[in-house]
Amino acid sequence: MTTQKQHTRALTGIVCGDEHLSHEEFQHDIKRAASGLREAGVKPGDCVAIFMRNDIPFMTLSRATAYIGGYAVPINWHLVGEELTYILHDCAAKILVIHADLWRKVKDEIPEGVQCILVETPKALREAFNLTPEDCKVPSDQIVFAQWLAESDPIADPPQEGPSSMIYTSGTTGHPKGVRRKPLPPENAKELQAFRSRVYGCKEGVRAMVPGPLYHSSPNGFAMQSSRVGDLLLIVPRFDAESFLTMVEEYAITAAVMVPIMFIRLLKLPADVRNKYDLSSLEFVVHAAAPCPADVKTRMIEWFGPVINEFYGSTESSGVTACTSEQALAKPGTVGTTVPEADVRILDAEGNILPPGQIGEIYSRFPNMDFTYNRKPEERAAIDRDGYITSGDMGYFDEDGFLFIADRIKDMIISGGVNIYPAEIEEVLHNCPGIKDCAVFGIPDAEFGESVMAVIETDDGNTIDVKGVEAYLREHLAGYKVPRHIEVGHDLPREDSGKIFKRRLRDKYWQAAGRSI
Q1: Cα–Cα distances in angstroms (integers) from residue 12 to residues 17, 21, 227, 233, 251, in the given order
Q2: Residue 25 and residue 8: Cα distance in Å, rounded?
Q3: Cα-based torsion angle of the residue sequence 252, 12, 136, 110 in order, rounded to the nearest 10 degrees
């Protein structure tokens, strides 16, 4: 008799919730979607926006867009209003593929001329996010993805295998920027595939799990790679600590991409829960996107074994350093050594290369991953020094060539692996009735690494309803950007220019936590 567990351990293809496609079915859908996109007018270099939670059609459309030389543009599905509209305008999206429940929330913000294809929100997502079944159905007057796909004949042309997805990344000021890469010649593309296999742990035959959102660069790159070379790609609708352990055992998962907050939630499980699952299939767990406390990493290695790996980089640079479990234990706090495909420099303010042990700004170069910002070449030039780019991090190399992150020049907040930039939140606060000025910054958070803090100054010192401020922010921003802490301040410290001196406000929180930034 074949048990369910035995069946899932042998399953191949792509799985999300109770939906499953074999490799052959997945490839067939990719070719049908590629044909449908071309029929809809998508040409090489054009963009197809994807506004979805984790689901199999997310991967189908991403692969199909690349098949015909286009850019898949994954968009954070938490975005609202002008945040979404801006990206759709900036990338000049020909098509927007969107879950039905999300479409109902943002339909009025979708620019005219963008053709929408709606995906019925599946059972796994309805349950994970407690969605109303009626909201998850596609309205009768809209294009239904499943029907659209069924009516498309598989494309006969060979794949162009265009560039990687164009993911929008947020800096400290202004709007998000699309990281647009050029297609690589076949030989360079092959080298890049080998790099991803090594750094992501996505080798031939991998049984991979993606518990993080596919609109983020690391999970997206991991999923795209493993969907090409793996035996199984398991897409998780929403991360849950114990469910993660269950799926590792049931599907015999060998590789996964994670962020440190997932480690923290796993470690909070009772010992009897943590110890009852067989995790021996795991060979490579890679994490990125946010700093991981050394003690958390040590505990994970003690539990999972020496399978915990890390890479450091950004959406722009990709991974430029890599760190194994053995290296993490030997050099607590390091993010590893430079990968052979990249080059990393530590520069002072004048652009001089600094010796080991001296902190400076981190610049990196990865020739096969060069890029421009979509429609913003001047922004690309602003972060470049002699072909090396920076994301504003400060750090140093030790004598053995291991990189350590010391600080961030920019005010970017990384909360639970998500980049949040204060300028956008401050802009909304400045428009809130009753607020004279404000400062937004990150403060220590035991679970998320950092959480968003806002200090507001009221008009003429009047009192203000903090709950009302929160409600106002939620009308204009995605929920994860709304400060978890809002404090009313008076006579806020200012620089000579009149700008609020944020460091004086936030230092007390970091010092109280025994840390500095």
Answers
A1: 14, 8, 11, 8, 9
A2: 18
A3: 110
Q: What is the pLDDT of residue 513?
A: 64
- 358-412 pLDDT per residue, tens: 988 999 999 888 899 999 999 999 999 999 999 888 889 999 999 998 756 667 7
Helical ranges in 358-445 per DSSP H: 377-382, 422-430
pLDDT of residue 172: 42
Whether 128 and 8 have beta carbons less than 8 Å apart is answered as no
Quick count: other Cβ atoms within 10 Å of Cβ 404?
17
Q: What is the pTM of this model?
A: 0.83
Domain 21-183 has CATH 3.40.50.300: no
Q: How many CB atoms lie within 10 A of CB 94?
A: 19
Closest-CA residue to 251 (of 450, 461, 414, 17): 17
- Beta bridge partner(s), residue 437: 457
- What pLDDT sits at residue 1? 41
Contacts of 45 (CB under 8 A, 6+ apart): 69, 70, 71, 162
Residue 16: predicted pLDDT: 97
Which one-letter DSSP state was computed for residue 237?
S
| CA 405/CA 64 separation, integer angstroms | 38
| Whole-number Å distance between alpha carbons of 354 and 46 | 42
Asked if 291 and 260 touch (Cβ cutoff 8 Å), the reply is: yes
- Sequence-distant (≥ 6) Cβ neighbours of residue 233 within 8 angstroms: 13, 14, 15, 59, 208, 210, 223, 226, 227
Q: Report the alpha-carbon distance of residue 430 to residue 427 in Å, rounded.
A: 5
Look-up of token digits 């803090």: 453
Kindly tell me the number of DSSP H helices and DSSP E strands found in the chain: 18, 28
Q: What are phi and psi of 381, to 5 degrees?
A: -65, -30
pLDDT at 358: 93
Low-confidence residues of the chain: pLDDT under 70 = 1-4, 6, 170-174, 407-410, 460-461, 494-499, 513-517
Question: Computed from CA positions of residues 506, 511, 515, 517, in that sequence, does the dihedral angle turn out positive or negative?
Answer: positive
In degrees to the nearest 10, what's the CA dihedral of 300, 306, 247, 204? Answer: 150
pLDDT of 515 reads 57
Please report, for the chain, the start and end positions of each structural domain, with discontinuous segments joined by +.
21-183, 413-512
Q: The domain at 413-512 falls in which architecture? A: 2-Layer Sandwich (3.30)
